[in-house]
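Its record is set out here:
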Amino acid sequence: MLEPRIRSVTVMAVALIAVSVPAAAGSAAAAPARVRCRHGSSPRIAERRRPRGNRLTSCQSMQDHRNEEKHVKRIIPLAAVAGVTIMLVGAIPASARNDVIGPASVRKSTWVHYTTQRTVSDSGTNIYVRKSNGPELDVRWRRCAGGQTGTAVRLPNTDPTSAIRIGRDFLAGTVFCLSAYSRGNNETDTWEGIIYWDVREAP
């Protein structure tokens, strides 16, 4: 899903295209061009004469038309490519991040608190975890310095799992760590996976 800022960048690009095309065409029409006219065999600067019956001299009229066509043909493809490029660049999430988890130890009888710190840089984004190997377990986020803990989220025994959201709407600057609690048969075990943060939708 494209964000509002992507749409705003695209609108700006379209506006620039709309201004560039007529401006370029106008400058082409205003500039006199060296052409070969019927009045002689040597090139000369063709000047706009007073219209006769709302028609220009054939020499000037033809050259103006050709100049306008050339400039418009050059500007429109370049403007179209610029607009598509801006849309593609804008569609790429600038701050989305991910990291490998484990192999990390986990226990059946108690929560294991991991010490790897990660920092949210984009406000309003979420955290997801995908387990690639290990027992069924609960995972939650917590502030590394203490004081706030997220709700435990179950990661099933099926591997790999989908990317499951464990927290949402984080503020930029939040420093968080993970904790895990095994639901498997073994008293101690290990698990592996991938954590995603600074994202708005499941990767």
Remarks:
- The first helix runs from residue 4 to 30.
- The chain has a mean pLDDT of 73.
